[in-house]
Amino acid sequence: MDKILALSDGDSTELQKYLSTLTDDQLTTVINNGALKSKKVGAMIKGIFKGSAPGSPEGSNRRLLVYQHCIPLCESGDLQTEVAADIIGLLMLETHTLPGTSLAKLATLYVEAIKAGKMGSGKSLELFPTVLTALSACEALSYGKGELSGGEYKKQLINSLCSSRWDPQCVIHLTTMFRDVPLSSEELQFVVEKVLRMFTKLDLQEIPPLVYQLLLLSAKGCKKQVLDGIICYFKEQDVCQEEEQKLGESLDLEVQSIPLDQLRHVEGTAILHIVFAIRLDHELGREFLKSFKTSYGDLCPFSVALLLSVARVQRYGEQVFDLLKGAIIKSFKDEQLQQGSKFLQDLLPGHCSVAQMILDTVKNSVFGWDHVTQGLVQLGFFLMDAFGPKPGPFGKTTEGSASIARTPNQQACKLGGQVLLQGFKVHEPIRGEILDQVLNRLVSKTASPVNNYLDLFSDIVVSAPMILLESSSKVTETFDHLSYLPLTTVQGLLKAIQPLLKVSMSLKDALILVLRKAMFSSQLDGRKSAVTGFLLLLKNFKVLGSLASSQCSQAVSSSQIQVDVHARYNSAANEAFCLEILSSLRRCLGQQADVRLMLYEGFYDVLRRNSQLGSSVMQTLLSQLRRYYEPEQDLLPPVKLEPCITAIGDQVYLQEPLAHLLSCTVHCLLWLQNSQSANTNADDGEEEEEEGEGYQCEIQAVLESMTRRMIKCELEDFELDKSAEFSTANSVGVKNNIYAVLVMGVYEVLMEHNFIKANYSKSRFEELMELFNRYHKLAEILKEKSGKARVLSNKIPRSLLSLGFVSTLLTGLFRDSTQSREEALSVLRSSGEFVRYAVNVAVQKIQQLEETGHTDGPDGQNAERTFRFLCDTTSVLLWRYTNIPSGVEDAGKKEKRSSLSLVCLEGLLRIFTACQQRYPDRMAQLLSSMEMSEDAAEPDESNVTEMNFFYIRQFQRALFTQLSRGEEEFNSKEAQLLVSILCVLSRQLKPSSQQFVQMITWTVKICKETSFEDSAFSKGLLTLLFNLHVLYKSPVSLLLELCQDIHSQLGDIDENVEVEKQSHFAIINMKTATAGVLLVLSQVDRVLDEVDWLIARKKSRTSSDKSAAGEATQTAGQQDPTEKAVTLQLGTLLTALNELVQTALLPGTCTITLLRELSRTYTTLTTLVKYYIQACASQHSALPARFEKLVKLSGSHLTPQCYSFITYAQNGEFGGGGADDKKKKKRNEVNAAPSAKLLRETKAIPNVIFSIEQYEKYLITLSKKSKVNLMQYMKLSTSRDFRINSATLDAALQEQDTSQEVSAGFFYLITRVTEADLSSVSPHVGGFESLCCAFFNTHSAGSDQFVKSFLWIIFRPTCHRRPRRHKNPVRRRESSEPRLNSVWIAHLRLPPGSCPGSWVLSPFV
């Protein structure tokens, strides 16, 4: 070694001679010794290279020997890191001097070492890129028996390397190495695919550095492939984890191949690497977002987390949230579409839920994914803002069930709330931001509903009340805005924070201060908010000793807050606090009626939750009642109505809701009496009991006196007899209306009080009937005087009867068979009007519950009690309907109002609908509470489906009974209600159950056998049939049969064609066919929705599917199932539409709707053609035979009939004689509606023609792509732009005697031609031809402008469309440009040098 170093400083000749004396073993020994001892090994290798001339064979071999020895030596791990790095550096400098054969041997050495797994440390791999770079520069290398260029040789090496097995330890080193290798796109793809395949072979901890190196490698290309591979790997890992978790749950074992927390930490690190790479390489970011824009099917929890992390990059934030928003709403829509169609469920596998992925991402983010949490917060609020409830007309919104999300928008909004709630629970750093944004939106969104944010805030309070107390200052700031917020917002906010008020003195004090200020607010809503807040405090701060009420349990139990309320607030403090609030509330008794009304409605709940306040509350109510009570027992009436109203100018307003005051007093009194009688531990409360008995006796005496005197009162005592004015146009009428409502309310309250106090006494019930008779008499007068419009008998004023009383009353009237009560109840039952009144009130309460979710009066806000009311009422109404059929009710037929049975049936329908909307999970409980007759078989309550079907059969029998009576005795209203009930109940059946099959079989049978000419009933029955059929199988075959029946009933558009009489469904007849057409077309629209969705899904899968190329060799016999299903659906649909377009439909809605569906059908066909164009371009596959048949069906059958139908429609809509024209003109002067109708019609027809022509246009393109002549099935379309009714013109011209008259008359005529005179007759008619030629020749001396004007008037378009240019030269003659017949041009004396084409077309330019 020393000698080599010494000689290297001198002449190279001596060094060469010395090196030539050394054998290969000696040389390698020298290198080993120098490297291991770290003694100037670099200088020694430099000397060896200096003494080895690259041009000589000996020198080249020696250099190669050094390379071949040093590479394994550096990889062995025996050398120090610095020594190995120096050696590799020296070798890299000399690599370019090696000949091609040596480079090839070195490259082969590397490949073999990698295959053998000898490159574990990767120290020598830094040299490999230099070798490959030098190798690719070589011009020719021997390979086998031939030669290859250096680039080709390098490609073979890389291909061989990527096809071999890699040691997992060297994967990262190899990936790093390939970054420095110049690679073609094909070579890079080899490398990337190999590295991605190696992911599963590596330990989990090695994945993040490999991801990092891959991302750096992606700078060369294959960005999409790299990202897809990384995401796919983690997606597979998540699936494995989920399967292992399910397996572990089923075996009660913990099965985990990879620890979950370790996997999540690795995913988080990989996300950081990817986001960092995207920040530096925007092309990578664009590729990443582009891959998710076409379809959300590739999303997974990892990719969602990655998207949310990328959203932190400013330039991508908006794109990411728009992308996620679109994916979420599309996912919900697709899920809804699949759930509503058995056809789609059978065709496609389970739905991919983006919502579940996002919730999984929230759950996974617990493992230190801080870079994801901010995106989750933004996404949550983005969804709630975008899809939250919107203000309706006049700023109002329809109230709905907050917990049930039905539409995709509601589901997306609910998902946003779930994301924020879960994020609030698990991530402490974002809690403050979430709370700030929620409270800010509650305060700022005063113009739109904030129910979604109130629900979220309430959930946050329930889930983490103590955490929220740490941010109580933010809640206190919100209190300052209470008096300016809408009342609904205030109510929701105060209800949400009620658990916090019990544990936070400062929060409670701040609220009271704000409420006191609001009590004196100038805004009415501000004062209402104050009353709401004070009543809430009274309900929740109990005075010790208050009676427990099982029905008053709060939404949040105090155990969740872990604080003893009474330890902080003792009994005396609570009592003083509540009495102070009551004194504040007494001020409300002098304010507007709305404020007083809120107070009266709230006192009952206060009393039930805080019974110790009974004395104060009752004293307050009694003192208020005394103001309007006449104490003199001999004076009538017993109430003073004048103080109940106030006048401002000419306007009269209600000042005191007297009936509500009386109702509140009665219900509070009854509850206190019941609670005191139930309280057995009354030893300590004798003084309070005596005090209570005092005001109770006084109130009882007042009620008894009012009852006695109200019975004696006549309407004249209230100045409300028949001669009174009730018109709302003047102040006297308004005053009388207010008086009448107050008096009717008082009567109702007294009726309820007397029923409860009567204890089934006959005499008391007779008094009750006297009260009702007075009530009914006033109600009839009010109904008669309020207007001349027909009012249904069940449309009564808002009743003040309570839910409990209505339920008890109905049970007593219909179901109570107790012998001791029989005599008393007979008094009530004998009055038909009273029974009808009771049922109408029940239906009114049910309707209110259905619309708003609650009812008026006591317990109206209590969900449990309202459901109990529904159960009791259902049982009674069903018993009444089934035991007393409407056929035996003669009284109902004599009067122009619904029979009592029909009212009961309407009530049942509303109950089932309300329960399905408000209590969807308790439908089985409702059904189980119903009892049919005693001898009826009891349904098995454990089987919900059986129980549901049991009641379905009862209503089926009732409907069958109706249909068996014959058409003369058929009650259409009852039948419609029965069908509607069957529709609602059938939704509870599982489509896979045998009962569902029986239901649809029965419905089909009824439709086929029922031939009643009742349009409304047939519409309901067909709707039921369609609703069931779509969940059973595709409805296209059903639509075809219905279309054939409609065609058979209405006849053909050609009067000379006799249609074959077919009757698949007897429900379709002359009177019901029109309604049937609209229903059929609505189902056609639904089928087209499904087909469009399938085509769009197939297109997105084809464009994004990586294996599409491998599946490209499809033949006609191996058609894709989705394509086959789409083709079959469209084929049957075209056949059905072919029947409809030949049907003589009535002008109007049916015609326009059919034209719209035809236009949509051709648009769908065009979409399918575009899909096959795309498939032909990418896969080069043959067109399926079924598709060719579909094209043939559309071209040879449907399209010609479409043009015939358009002609028929226009003749029907626009045609008519002079008398009809006069009528139309008169109508147009009176009403502009026909003009709008005409505008709609003229839009529908061009849309159909345009859709047909677009379809044919793309068929031409597909024919060229597929080499199949699809246009052979298409007939040339009729040019419909310019039409002249020659018969009308000839008849007018014959009336002219002289040529001057002909000239003047003809010119007058052509300027008077209107669109109503135009038809489909071509202008190429002989007589008219001659006339035009003669007219032109006579006036050819005139100006050219005259000729232009003449032609413009004659050929002006009836459809105002711009001229089109057809790409198909065969169809160019069908252009919408007006062209003269060659015979006409030959007979015209045109000005010299004029060109017919130029001046004919010039008016259109």
UniProtKB/TrEMBL annotation:
Coiled coil: none annotated. GO terms for molecular function: DNA polymerase binding. Transmembrane segments: none annotated. InterPro entries: FANCI (IPR026171), FANCI_HD1 (IPR029310), FANCI_HD2 (IPR029312), FANCI_S1 (IPR029308), FANCI_S1-cap (IPR029305), FANCI_S2 (IPR029315), FANCI_S3 (IPR029313), FANCI_S4 (IPR029314). Residues 283-364, 549-783 form the FANCI helical domain. Residues 1-51 form the FANCI solenoid 1 cap domain. It comes from the Eukaryota. Residues 61-278, 372-535, 800-1025, 1039-1290 form the FANCI solenoid domain. GO terms for biological process: DNA repair. PANTHER family: BC025462 PROTEIN (PTHR21818), FANCONI ANEMIA GROUP I PROTEIN (PTHR21818:SF0). This is FA complementation group I. It comes from Gasterosteus aculeatus aculeatus.
